[in-house]
């Protein structure tokens, strides 16, 4: 019963947090109190201060869709293993997803965010089973009801695409079709890429399996994506676009557009991620850290805002497969490398997330609940 109450409270908070930002951006020249964050949780580097941070790995996947020779494949896998082990994060270019499709989805995303706030709020952000769907953000912070991110977003999956498009543009069938077709095509294309990438990650860890067993490694469906908008802010030093957090899923595939704002934590320092034309940013999630027995890191990351430019991004969340239990893969456990985590279910993990929301301290990670002590 307690979990259900917290779930309801979070849904209400997510809806409330979506309401004020558009009005603030239009009418105010200062950052209101509701958007002010403690100094320790704010950026220490600007959204475009990339000097010295170009060591963030950028991996060329050219040839991934064809026949890679073994040397080239091993080189890619080695780079992925090192990137996930040290950063929990990397970028990929030549990934095989049509860049014209990415541009189409970015364009229709901008059309959505240009809608009146009353229209966008026709579908509030609420929990459905184990995921957020709809318009708004939930803030993972104990002060979530009084502190807000300088951003807005739309969570959507395949079953809801058509319903959302007809709700947002009830009289414009052309835009309905444009939104639905672009989103469905993007979900399909990035989903196929996610499977190829996941197999490369497993290979990088030395986990190879027969094709007949591949079904148990396919990501959970339906895929969940989030369209993000970070408007210009009068004083970016006082607020945040998205609070620091770990993703609970397997990994996230992000197209961050051409305006910087994504930052990743490494060695207790924030590193801004330079946008690369046509690239996807890949960050490992908690489920990947668990099944890899800590060979892969879950990346602590956040989004910051700037004073002059709108920033738009597309986040595709690769959900963990429908395993009965999540646990380190047997191939990665031996006497010298004992299991770092007890077996757990996604439901148990998700309930730990909900239960910790009210008391959550900064930068905590619910995966710690399942560590072998």
How would you describe this structure to a colleague?
- Keywords: Iron, Metal-binding, Oxidoreductase.
- Residues 219-320 form the Fe2OG dioxygenase domain.
- This protein is an alpha+beta fold.
- 31% of the residues lie in helices and 17% in strands.
- The chain has 9 helices and 13 strands.
- It has helices at 2-17, 21-27, 70-86, 99-113, 117-120, 161-168, 173-204, 286-291, 346-356, and strands at 58-60, 89-93, 126-128, 131-135, 152-157, 224-230, 242-245, 251-255, 262-266, 269-272, 280-284, 301-303, 311-318.
- The chain has a 9-stranded mixed beta sheet.
- The radius of gyration is 20 Å and the shape is globular.
- Residues 1-7, 9-20 and 138-145 have low confidence and may be disordered.
Name the descriptors.
31% helix; alpha+beta; Oxoglu/Fe-dep_dioxygenase_dom; 9 helices; DIOX_N; four-stranded antiparallel beta sheet; 373 residues; single chain; globular; disordered N terminus; nine-stranded mixed beta sheet; 13 strands
Q: What is the element layout, followed by pairings?
A:
Blueprint: H1 2-17, H2 21-27, E1 58-60, H3 70-86, E2 89-93, H4 99-113, H5 117-120, E3 126-128, E4 131-135, E5 152-157, H6 161-168, H7 173-204, E6 224-230, E7 242-245, E8 251-255, E9 262-266, E10 269-272, E11 280-284, H8 286-291, E12 301-303, E13 311-318, H9 346-356
Parallel strand pairs: 1-2
Antiparallel strand pairs: 2-11, 3-4, 4-5, 5-6, 6-13, 7-12, 8-11, 8-13, 9-10, 9-12
GO molecular function, one term: metal ion binding
Protein name: Fe2OG dioxygenase domain-containing protein
InterPro entries: DIOX_N, IPNS-like_FE2OG_OXY, IPNS-like_sf, Iron_ascorbate_oxido_reductase, Oxoglu/Fe-dep_dioxygenase_dom
